TrEMBL record:
One of its GO terms (cellular component) is cytosol. Its main location: cytoplasm. The gene is cysS. It comes from Caldiarchaeum subterraneum. This is Cysteine--tRNA ligase. One of its GO terms (biological process) is cysteinyl-tRNA aminoacylation.
Amino acid sequence: MIKIFNTYSRSLEVFEPHIPGHVTMYVCGPTVYDVAHLGHARTYVAFDAVIRFLEFMGYRVKYARNVTDVGHLRETGEDRMIVGAERLRKHPMEVADKYMMEFFRDMDALGIRRPDIQPRASMHIPEIIEAVEKLVDKGYGYVIDGSVYFDISKFPDYGKLSNIKPEELLMHRIDPDPRKKHPADFALWKESPPSYPFSWKTPWGRGFPGWHIECSIMSMKYLGEQIDIHGGGQELIFPHHENEIAQSEALTGKKPFVKYWMHTGELTVGGRGMHKSYGNFITIQDALKTYPSDVLRLFILSAHYRTPLDYSEKSMEQAAENFDKITNFYENLSLIAEEDRAKPRDPSLDELGDVFKQSFIEAMSEDFNTPNALAIVYDFMKKVNTRLDDIGHEQAAHLRQLFLETCRALGLLQKIERRSSAAEVMEFVKTLVEVRRELRKRGMYDLADRIRNMLAERGIVVEDTKEGERIRIVR
């Protein structure tokens, strides 16, 4: 039984999708006016682990993640896409294409599962205009010259997601039109000035969509009027997701628009949020020049998705060390599995594997608790490592497959099979060990020791035992 912390109810709830065995999931994607940084990676890796675990548990997940290329305004009222265009001296749509493709490459490099659908806001203008017209006709929207605003007084549940009361909303935010009925009324459609690069013809004049209506329309078009999971960073709870609920439920008359709201905690640097405006951000591309994608993923999953996560070199070094342990464990099992080591199957090891899998599932089923799940992975490795000498090749192959499937439920070890196979490594090492054995028989201990030392420098330890040489990968 999977439980999810629902931001809307502020409590753990048993996960029951609208259609048993099927999950519809929408995660707010990037505004593609600049390169993506590790703050973005934190959100998308976290939700990637959610999706992978749901699929591990047998669910079929239909996943949509949008691309915002129009309408996302700064607090100052500037469209982020136009800010990016002015910086690069290009048309906003050129900027959108450039950074959208870079974002896709970043996600692939991080090993993040590609969404089933990746809709662009600018390609859904007719549907957005139609939805705004309906909201006006139903009395939820009102027109001021060429702009259309949502009247929050017509939606009694406004503020329940963010726990903010409408009477507390005294700021006009980024829609400072004094003619609005309430300061918190938000834009469904904005009138555009002459020669504005984003401008579409509507019944109210030329303009462009509000940011919030874009996600409502795209999610409903591809996933339905009521979806199971909607995710994003905690900074999107208000106003973005609050406004999505209001306009979506007003438009369709169906509640709830989203059954489970999930939000990721902030990635910080020295306790301060990672943001472009602060200048303390690290791009995904730069981070991948220093650390493999699995190390970045392990760092992100070391904290629960709802909690803040602080970036530091020390925490990255710890993640790198932990990932070395994971790969060493996998490769040591592979060495045993691919050598001719016939030993009786140990029922207690099979039981250890069963307990490991069940404990992992229980940890992840409690609101996708990745740090607890990783602790279970490390404990399993520790216990099996003490018994490697007792494992035959068949049982090693079984434990290796169990370990690989479990790690991949977190998105780890996706590229492990691209390395040289354990059989190839073992064949080469065996040849060197045989040469070393012959040198020792001839009393050429200096040369024999050189071979052992050279292997040790490469993370391959050769230990002399009564039964012969034992080989371990420690890296």
